[in-house]
């Protein structure tokens, strides 16, 4: 493990933690969406949009710090990749909520709640993992579990697609719902990208 004394390096850890905490906020808003009626969804979408903007601000702060730092806690490309992947998660979650509102979806298909539960668990694990970047300790279980969750998300996604194409829905509704479940799947993929980046960093720093 490298021994570091540079004070300004610590700001990266705090910013990554803040970005991950904001993702937890986004996942909770997704959970709220499940139990909300159509009239309440617009307000949830507004809060999700605000969370997504906060995520953008956190990402830009990391990039600004990266561009102005002579010494960084780990490789610059890994800092950029980690920040970008965290930002992608928020973008996908916000897009899913926005689509539900824009398409006036009355009822989400059975299985979407499972997708969102997986994302909520991945968000919690990611937020718990970010502070461990300071020491690079106790991270193995994190990336193993997030990869397992992504595999679970893949299975749920396939079942949802099979359900959507079983003839119950008309063609336009299928297109709308498929776009939503596809975006949620992309969010699960983005969580895996974060975990893979953390693993790459940990291997380099070991």
TrEMBL record:
InterPro entries: PhoU-like_sf, Put_Phosphate_transp_reg, UPF0111_domain
Signal peptide interval: none
Domain of life: Bacteria
PANTHER family associated with the record: UPF0111 PROTEIN YKAA
Family listed: Belongs to the UPF0111 family.
Name of this protein: Phosphate transport regulator
Species annotation: Streptomyces spiralis
């Amino acid at each position: 493990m490298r021994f570091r004394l540079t004070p300004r390096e610590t700001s990266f850890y705090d910013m990554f933690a803040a970005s991950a905490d904001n993702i937890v906020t986004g996942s909770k808003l997704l959970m709220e969406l499940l139990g909300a009626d159509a009239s309440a969804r617009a307000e949830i979408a507004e809060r999700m949009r605000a969370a997504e903007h906060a995520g953008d601000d956190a990402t830009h702060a990391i990039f600004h710090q990266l561009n102005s730092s002579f010494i960084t806690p780990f490789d610059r490309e890994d800092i950029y990749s980690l920040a970008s992947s965290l930002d992608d998660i928020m973008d996908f979650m916000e897009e899913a909520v926005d689509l539900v509102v824009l398409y006036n979806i009355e009822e989400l298909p059975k299985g979407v709640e499972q997708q969102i539960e997986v994302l909520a668990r991945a968000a919690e694990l990611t937020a718990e993992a970010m502070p461990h970047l300071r020491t690079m300790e106790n991270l193995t279980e994190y990336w193993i579990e997030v990869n397992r969750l992504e595999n679970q998300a893949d299975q749920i996604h396939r079942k949802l697609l099979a359900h959507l194409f079983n003839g119950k829905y008309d063609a336009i509704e299928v297109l709308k719902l498929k776009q939503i479940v596809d975006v949620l799947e992309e969010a699960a993929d983005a969580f895996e990208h974060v975990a893979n980046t953390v693993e790459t960093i940990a291997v380099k720093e070991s």
